[in-house]
Amino acid sequence: MRQVVYISTAAKIAESDLEDILQAAKDNNVDIGVTGILLFNGQNFLQVLEGSDEMLDALVDRIEVDPRHSGLVVMSDLDISERCFPDWSMQLVRLSSSVEQRKEELSAVLPASLDDTVRKQLLNYAALN
Ligand SMILES: Cc1cc2nc3c(=O)[nH]c(=O)nc-3n(C[C@H](O)[C@H](O)[C@H](O)COP(=O)(O)O)c2cc1C
Questions:
Q1: Average pLDDT, the chain
Q2: CB of 95 within 8 A of CB of 38?
Q3: Domains along the chain?
Q4: Fewer Cβ close by (within 10 Å): the C or N end of the chain?
Q5: 40 near 114, Cβ under 8 Å?
């Protein structure tokens, strides 16, 4: 089992694009056994994807060329023994406009099993404007 974390910059997308992305992610990820979380702060995405090696390679390749974002950079790529987000085919977390509140909100949804470095990456991302 593998877990990949990446960040990217959103294109000029509408609310409906975000809903389309989430729906496609939910539908496809169930079929390919991928789980994870997608954070969006209005400008950047941070996504955690968990699944088998080959599924993740193919999925990241597909996501990378999606014109709704650009500049995808993988921040972490770990072997994991168990999923951190087993119940979420893809959970969207919209970060609120208040930077002060974001860390708190995100902390509340992150599981204890998350790798410490990954947790810090997510919380630091949440504090960015
Ligand atoms: C930020 C972002 C995250 C995405 N996450 C996923 C995902 O987790 N799973 C997925 O299948 N597609 C995801 N997509 C969409 C893919 O790039 C692609 O559009 C989709 O997989 C095509 O599915 P379809 O052929 O069923 O329309 C994401 C796109 C973006 C921009």
A1: 94
A2: no
A3: 2-127 (3.30.70.100)
A4: C
A5: no
Ligand 1 closest atom vs CA 49: 8
Place of tokens 């959970």: 91
Residue 96 has pLDDT above 90, yes or no: no
Q: Summarize pLDDT for 19-78 with one digit per residue, the tens.
A: 999 999 999 999 999 999 999 999 999 999 999 999 999 999 999 999 999 999 999 999
Q: How far is CA 105 from CA 7, 43, 96, 111, in A?
A: 19, 18, 9, 13
4, 12, 18, 21: which to mutate for ligand 1, most atoms within 8 A of CB?
21
